[in-house]
Every structure is written in C-alpha cells, then in structure tokens.
Inverse folding.
C-alpha cells in the first residue's frame, strides 16, 4: 500500500529546531483537517522524539535528524523520526517511565508521552548506528459538510 | 514567548508563556533559579495560563524547581494550566507532588 501523500525533512540536531520540527509536521498534517487535540497530541509526540535525538542520540555532537511523515487512505498518519546517533542499548529500559540518562532536568517521560498520545510507537535501534521511532495515529473522520 | 517574574510578599510568580520544550525550558530555568537563589521566596508560583505548547521538558522544569524549593524550605504551586498542559502533568503524576491551583490571578499582583 502506498501513502496518499508523504513529506521528508532533515535538519541539524540543534535544540532550536525542536519547534521547527513539530511545526513542520503540523503544517503537513493540516490538509487532513485534524482536530485541535489531535494536532496537539502529534506535535507533543514529535517534540519528544526529536528531543531524544538531540539529548541522547547526538549527546555531545551535532548530527542530522530525518523526519518522514505519511498520510494513508484510511486516515492514519505515520511519522518516522530517525537519527544516526549512538543508538539505544536497551530499548525496553529506555521506554520505562521515569527512566532517564538525561540528568536532573529530564523527567524520563518522553516515550510515555509518545505512547499515551499516539496509537502506536515503534522503536528500532542499532547501538552505534542510530535509532528510528515510528509514531502512528488514526485521525478521527469527521462528516464532510455538503456531502 | 518566555518568562516574566513577579515578586510580591514572599511569593515569586513565574508567568510562563509560549512554547515549553527542551530548548526554551533552559532559559526559563535559568531565569527562575537565579531569582529564587537571590530572593529566597517562601512560595514559587508557576503560572501556565499563557502556555501554548508543552512537552515533557515542562515536567522536568516543574520537578527541578520543586526540588530546589524543597531544599530552600519553600514550596511550589502550579497554577492555571490549560487542558493540554494538565494532561501531561497528570500523566507524570505531578499533580500529586506540587500543589495545583486554578484561577490564580497573578497579573493583578503586578505592581
């Protein structure tokens, strides 16, 4: 099955790009007319995934973050956030709520937020090579005005 | 976008606005901590009424200030959270940790 629309964007892992990343995904999704709450959920999940790349994957360096967003005919949106950073040794552990290696100011809730705000979160990681996080959510179908 | 600090009667209010993420939380944290360490408030009110977006970095921001205020013998009040902010805060269980208040009028305490 092919997506009905797709966009790709890549940018440096500077923290100033966190806002750029979620705003770009939101702008792409606007054509699906999502509800305010769906859009807020997706922006938050994207922000968490991108922040993980910046804080963890490229911890002491600057690398490239790749985002691919796809719109499917059944109303599902999928967003893949990928890096070529350090990778995650133990994905299960990393996804545990409150677990963090990010220091005092990080709550360790990134994956918990992604899981709570999206329908599905898939994480693939190769230590030393990078990580990809795929977020999926089905948008609520609203009746079209004028039939 | 950012933070405005208001000092009155032993209470420091941080009026947060715009988007809170890992990038913007850093500046907010530095502003708050600098003033808290100087003024030693009994109470730190974090007012979220003008926050348009917040991810889990906002939770880190609240938790860090909670620890700081606890170390100084003070307390933290989280006020006026919009619904989307409240969802993340309750996901973190922070509503059990810090006092959450609605309808706090921090603007009027400005002099």
């Amino acid at each position: 099955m092919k997506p009905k629309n797709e966009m790709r964007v890549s940018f440096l892992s500077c923290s100033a790009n966190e806002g750029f990343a979620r705003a770009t995904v939101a702008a792409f999704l606007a054509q699906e007319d999502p509800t305010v709450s769906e859009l807020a959920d997706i922006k938050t999940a994207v922000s968490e995934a991108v922040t993980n790349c910046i804080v963890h994957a490229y911890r002491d360096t600057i690398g490239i973050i790749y985002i691919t967003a796809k719109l499917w005919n059944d109303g599902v949106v999928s967003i893949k956030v990928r890096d070529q950073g350090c990778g995650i040794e133990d994905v299960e552990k990393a996804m545990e709520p409150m677990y963090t290696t990010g220091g005092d100011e990080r709550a360790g809730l990134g994956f918990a937020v992604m899981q709570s705000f999206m329908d599905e979160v898939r994480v693939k990681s190769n230590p030393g090579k990078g990580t990809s996080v795929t977020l999926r959510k089905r948008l609520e179908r609203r009746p079209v005005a004028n039939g | 976008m950012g933070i405005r600090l208001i000092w009155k009667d032993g209470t420091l209010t941080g009026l947060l606005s715009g988007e809170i993420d890992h990038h913007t939380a850093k500046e907010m944290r530095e502003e708050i901590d600098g003033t808290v360490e100087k003024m030693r408030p009994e109470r730190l009110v974090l007012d979220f009424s003008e926050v348009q977006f917040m991810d889990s970095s906002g939770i880190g921001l609240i938790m860090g200030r909670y620890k700081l205020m606890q170390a100084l013998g003070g307390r933290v009040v989280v006020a006026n959270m919009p619904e989307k902010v409240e969802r993340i805060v309750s996901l973190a269980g922070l509503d059990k940790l810090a006092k959450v208040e609605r309808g706090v009028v921090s603007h009027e305490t400005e002099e």
